[in-house]
Design brief:
three-stranded antiparallel sheet, alpha+beta, D-amino Acid Aminotransferase, Chain A, domain 1, five-stranded antiparallel sheet, 28% strand
Length: 148
């Protein structure tokens, strides 16, 4: 799988089948339905957890902030491939806390870097201290204090 970039707002993943999956504005909502989407949280390029987000009654968006609900989930093989392709690039860019959205276990639709949600639900379902992992990653990037 290859990772490439088009416009600044696009991030494409392609594989040896010739398929390309873009996160450009035109594809962000493609395929969302009653099954919702999966929010996968990465810290310093590594997957730390995921939840399936389901839309609320009468809503097509599955965002938790608009009434969506979360359920425990596992990653598919394809989702692991997407994360493996993206993780190193996210880390290289210094993006410590990122939430990506995948639909149908296959299609990357969004990359959230300013305010990804879902860590409370991940912690509730898996017991993972995501906030602690974020702070650990931040602290690893800080210079050590000078020895006196």
């Amino acid at each position: 799988m290859a990772v490439s970039r088009g416009r600044r707002s696009d991030f494409c993943l392609g594989d040896n089948t010739g398929r390309a999956h873009s996160t450009g504005a035109g594809s962000q909502r493609r395929g969302r339905d009653a099954k919702g989407d999966k929010r996968i949280v990465l810290v310093d390029g590594e997957v730390v957890g995921a939840i399936n987000r389901l839309p609320g009654e009468g809503e097509i968006r599955s965002n938790l902030a608009v009434g969506g609900s979360a359920e425990k989930t596992e990653l598919t093989e394809r989702e692991r491939e997407i994360c493996a392709a993206m993780g190193p690039e996210l880390k290289r860019r210094g993006l410590i806390f990122v939430g990506i959205d995948v639909i149908g276990g296959e299609w990357l639709t969004e990359i959230n870097v300013t305010s990804p949600t879902g860590i409370v639900a991940i912690e509730r379902f898996d017991g993972t201290d995501v906030a602690g992992l974020i702070w650990d990653a931040i602290e690893r990037k800080l210079p050590l204090p000078a020895q006196v």
